[in-house]
Records
---
Amino acid sequence: MIIKGLFSLIIALLNIVFGWVSLPAMPEAVDTAFQTLLSYIEAGIGFVWLIVPREMVLVVVPVILVLSNFDKLYSVVMWVLRKIPFLGIE
């Protein structure tokens, strides 16, 4: 609930800052290439789900991402904790 509120606040701030910017539409060739790329990715994911159960993929992939980036995640958490003065973390 708190995370959802923070994301809503961030989106509202981004809309305030960048709301006045109107970007042109993407060219047709770029849009077609992007849609083709997405269809290839969807086909690849479908192939993976034939071999490995979908539920397992949805659990294992985030775990692998967290474990592979643990050092960066640890650095960010410790940086935030050091910014709180009454905790006394050095």
---
Amino acid sequence: MIIEKGFESLKELGTENVGLDGLIDKAEDMETRWRDDFVTGHRIVPVDLTRNLTAVYTPDSMDTVEADLTDTAFSQLCQRAGVPGSYIKKCYETGREDLAVENFFSFTHTPSRDASTMRLRVFDGTVRAALSMQYNPFDHPEILYGVKKAVGKDGRYEANEAFLSPDRMHIRFVDFNNPLKVHGDRLYSGFTVSSSNVGTAAFSIKYFLYRFACKNGIVRVQHGGILFRQTHLQEFLQDGEELFAAAIEKMHAIDQITEKQIDTAMNRRLTAQELSFYLDKAQTELHLGKKGREKAADLIGTDYDPTMWGFINSITDTAHDYTLDTRLSMEQWAGNMLAAA
């Protein structure tokens, strides 16, 4: 069967009684439950589907394996085969299992002149990713040990919120002792650390702004906001501690730029027509839907001033209602709006 991704959300580490060491322990436990199966064949995708939507394949020098798939792994297999995953799933959902298997078979059994090998990433018996041999996993514990050493030496940043699963990691570090003060408002800068074990995102470190009063976050990617980024198609050769230390060194310069942009956004009052324009823009570009737009609009005038800064905060506040992927997109969109203020 295909295992759908559930609702992913951040947890405050203080309320969970888990700090960075607890995250490392959890990541190390997960690491022992991963297995990489390598499958070689003279066809475009050396994996079959059964009528029960399980994957069947024969790893190199091993017996045949039948396993459940995550939605991510299923989509990756279909993409490699060149068949729409939504179509195959629709066949199953409407009782046309044989048609789904036949269509998948016809696309995946296209012969190739040279043998090709796939990396299937398996966690607790479930195939969670179907990737090329060029993909290099970056272990969660390795990344976390690097950031622990760097923030330990720096002494300013502490892990505040996190999401950690076998598939992905997103952790937010904040400096609570040196707030940015703009017109009486206190904001706390920091950085996010994100990575994926299943080929859905690069490993990145990004500048982050946290508003303690409402727990809103803004992720910056412009004006140097991407402190580090590396795809999983390259080897992870850099020393983890040095990598994070170099990223932290860039924070002060970005803090100064951010303070000026917040000041500009706070002083820019929006007319009713301008506010409607920006709400429409957010609804369209972020796919908020009617309810999302209405909530953001209601927050302006009640919780936030009708300024560009108030509008930005209404978006990051609304982002709390959405799953992690959408929330991150909204927070980064808000960061772009701040940069353009």
